[in-house]
Structure formats: structure tokens, C-alpha cells
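Our preliminary data section would be incomplete without showing what the modeling component actually yields. Below, a chain of 370 amino acids is followed by its predicted structure, encoded as C-alpha cells that our downstream tools consume directly.
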Amino acid sequence: MAYEQYMHWAIELARRGFGSVEPNPMVGCVIVSPSGEVIGEGWHKQFGKEHAEINALKDCRLKGLSPAGSTVYVTLEPCSHYGKTPPCAAALIEAEVSEVTAAMEDPSEKVAGRGFDMLRKAGIKVQVGMCREQAELLNPAFIKQSRRSRPWVILKWAQSLDGYMSETDAGGNTVWLTSEASRQDVHRLRRSCDYILAGIGTVLADDPMLTARPSCGRSPHRIILDSKLRIRLDMKLFQSIDAAPLTIFTLSNDEEKIQEIKDCGVDVERAQKDENGRCSIRGVLDKLSALKAQRVMVEAGPELLSEFIRCGLADEFWVYTAPKLLCSAGKDSLPEAMAGLPRSRLCHTEFTPFDKDIRFTALARDISEI
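Predicted structure:
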């Protein structure tokens, strides 16, 4: 196995943590003996639990092998501080590994090169930069929050081939547009996020819960933009308040209704007003930034999605396309909502099948520009 292939495998291992480790970064680790044999592997499996390096060392020892003298391939700089777990750099030193090859530095304040310093001072050779771009693409939200203290904004939507976001049956009722496999994948995405944001139009039309299901693990804090406070207290968002927190941003001065909502255990925040007299999405993101939000998912209709794009606030796109031409059965046309927006070229595109659907993902800019 060529050297880069060890790192490629570490990157694949890291991906297994998606939806379980956030807000921590996904990390993978492979331990290779002097003869080139993979003797240990691991990844960060759950927030608050052992990091990838610790799991790889455990795997090595469970096989009855010694990591002494080995080379460790890891997708992110080993941590150097005591948090929910002890520092990984110290564990590697204790294991007497001879070399650590890391794909990238940890940009967070708590590490920022200190892990490499610990290793070098202990006489361990350190190399940095192998498969850097692929490793950065694992954790763009972690990188952005560490460097710029701003949340990573993911726009998610489902559509037909002709650009409609909703499908109706012969009776005029809304039906599922995409497959069960696609919807399960959306729940994994929700679970990876700190916040999920929707507009009142989507809430009134669909009456969603906006939780991650099944209910094991975390669900994102739900944010609703409702400038006129049109939300009803009998909606599923209120019925599922025990499953995930809910905050409503509004411009309304209806103190009686605001108190009724608060009495249901829901937070109500005064929003800033944008140039169109609606809740300012920039203002909402500013407030989430102050709360150290890392990943914000926007699951909304065409108008709100278009506004995020128009303001340059979208970082990533997850688009599920069903093999359907809805024509007259379609509602909520994206091309119509986006007609006035300038064109843009997306980066790092991927296409993944989910049953008969296709999931398209892309970044709004190159990973090197985050």
C-alpha cells in the first residue's frame, strides 16, 4: 500500500463519524508497522468519547501488537489538551510511535500546532500536508468556525427534474417528492447540525417537526423566521418541544401571543428588520455566531433559499433530485424564485444515488478560501 493510500483509508474511516461526533471534527487514524502492515485503525465515533488516535491504539493492542516504532497516519493534528478526553499527542508519545503524518493542522484555539510541538519535543518525526484538501473537506464547518467564528450554512432542498420543490396528488394534497432513502439521509444531515432554520411559509404549508429521527442522538435546535408571528400553537413544532429546543425570531409586537408561545417552553427573539421588512437572516446568523454555532442547516422554501444565495450566506448545498417531471402537479418553483440571481460556479461537487434519487452536494467556494 502506497503512503497516500494509508491516509486515504484514514479519511474513509473518519467519514463514519458523520452525524455522531459534531460539533467535534470527523477524524480517522491508521497505524502502520515499519514493514508497512496496517496494525491498527480507528475513528472518532461519538462526541465526548475517545478520539481516533486512541481507538486506533486500542485496536492495535487488541490484536496483540505493539505500536512502538510505527508510523501514524491521522487526518487532523492530534490534540494537546485535556477536554472530555485526555490529549492524543500524549498517548502517541507514551505508545512510542516513531512518526506521525497528519493531513492538516488543527485550526482551533485549543490546539493550533501545540499537538505537533508536543510530538516533536518527544523526538517523534512529524509530517503535515498529505491529502490536505481531502481532509479539509471532511470538516469545513469546524475550520470556518475555528478561523472566522462564523457558522457554516448548508442549504438543503428536494426538487423534481423541472425544478419544483413540492408535489400534489389529484386531490391537491402534498405528497412526498423523494424516496425513503433520501429522507433517511436528510435525518443524518440534521443530526450533524447545531441548528435547523426554516421560514414560516414552510411551517404553515407542511407543519413539520424539523427533528432528527429516529430520536437517538441529538436533534438540532430549531429556528423559525416568523416576522408577523403567524405560527399556531397546535403545530407539531410545539408538540415536539421535548425532542428539540425551538426559537422563533419575529418582528411582531403582539405581547399576548408572545407570552402564550413562551408559556409552551419556546424562546421568542426580537429579530432585526431587513430592507424588505422581513426578519434579517444576517442578524439571525450574527446571534447564532455569538452562541458559537458551527453548522446551520436551512430547510426552507424557494424564497428563503434564494435570499441566502443572494446575500452570499450559503456555504454548502445538499440537493435531492427525484426522477420526476411534475409540470402542472408541481408547486414552489425554484427557477422562478432564483430568476434574478447572478450565476455562480460551485466547487467540490459530488453525486450520490439514493434509491432512484440523486443527491448533489457542493461548496459555494473552494475549500482553500474558507
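The CA atoms of residues 187 and 212 lie 5 Å apart. The mean pLDDT is 93. Preliminary results of this kind motivate Aim 1 of the renewal.
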